[in-house]
User: Fold this.
Amino acid sequence: MENQHDKGFYPKFLLFTIASVCFLILVGGMVRSTGSGMGCPDWPKCFGSWIPPTSSDQLPDDYRQVYLAKRQGKNIQLANYIEVLGFTNLAVRLRTDQGILLETSYNPAKTWIEYLNRVVGVIIGLLVFINVTITVAKPQWRRLIKLAILIFLLTGFQGWVGSIVVSTNLLPGTITFHMVLALIILGLLIYNYWLTRESRVFGVNSSVKDLNKVFMILMTAFSLFSIQIIFGTQVREAVDQISVNSDGISRESWILLIGTRFFIHRSFSLVILGMHAWFVYLFFKYQLVDPWKKWVYALMLSIGLSILTGIVLSYLGLPPFFQPFHLVLATIIFGIDVYLILELGQLKKVIRSNKI
Assistant:
C-alpha cells in the first residue's frame, strides 16, 4: 500500500511543481509588463530587508545612491570574472554603460510585484529541493537522483542569474538567457514527471514510417517554436528599453520603434501555426488518438489563444495586461510539445521492438 501511495503522490507533486514554474513565468511576465523589474534594487533581499518597506519614509534619504553603489560594485566584480572568460566587450559595457547605473525611485506597487516574483521563486527552489529528498529517500525513485540534482542546481543558478538581471538593470541579453534557462528547467521537470509514469502499451494501426513522419513534424514544430520564444523575449527586451526612454511616446507607436524584430516574431507565428496544424492533421490521420488526444486538444487551444493575444498586443498598442498571458501560453505550448515528443518517442521504440 505504501508503494502505491508513493507512486501516486510523486507524479502529482511533480505536476504541482511544473504548474508552479508556469505560475512563476506568469508572475515574471507581470513584472516585465508593469516595469517592476527594478522594484527591488538589491538581491536576494529587497531594500535590505526580507520583507520590503511599504513606504519610502522607511528608507534613508540617500537610498538610491546606496543601492546604486552596491549594484555597481557587484557589476565590476562580474565584469572581472567574465573578462577572464574572454567576454571583453561585455565586461567593458558592465563597467561603463550609464544605462546600467540608472537607479529608480521607490514605487510600492512595483516593489511588491517584484517581491511576489521572488517569493514564488523561493517556493519553487524549495519544491525542487524536496524533489531531491524524495529521490534519495524512496528506493523506487533513486534512479532519478541525478536528474533531480541537476534540476536543483539549475534552479539555484537561475536564482543567481536573476540577481545579475537586477544588478545590471535588466541588461538586454540577460533577460533572454533568464527565460531560456527557465524553459530548460521546465523541460527537465516534465521529463522527470514523464519518467514516473507507468509504462503503457497501446494498439496502433500506424506503421513505423508513419509514426516517424508524425514525430519529425512535431520535432520541427517544437524547434521552430523554441526559436519563436527567443524572438518574443527579444521583443520584450526592446519594449523594456522603449518604456524607459519613451519620453511620452504613446504605446501605439512602440511597435514601429521595435522594428524588424517585432514583425519577424509576428509573421513567424504563421509558420508555427502551420507546422502544428500539420502535426495535428497527421496525428488524427494515423489514429494516434489514445491517450494523447486531450493533450493535442490542449495544444490546439493554447496555440489559438496565443495567436489571439498576439493579435491584441499587435493591434491595440501592446496592452500590459495581455503580455503575461501571451508569455504563459507560450510556456504551456512548449511544455505540451515536450511531453508529446517524449510519449511519441517511447511509442516508436515500442513499435520497433515488436511489443505491439
Observations:
- Confidence is low (pLDDT under 50) at residues 1-5.
- Residues 33 and 323 are 6 Å apart (CA to CA).
- Residues 202-356 form one domain.
- The first helix runs from residue 2 to 33.
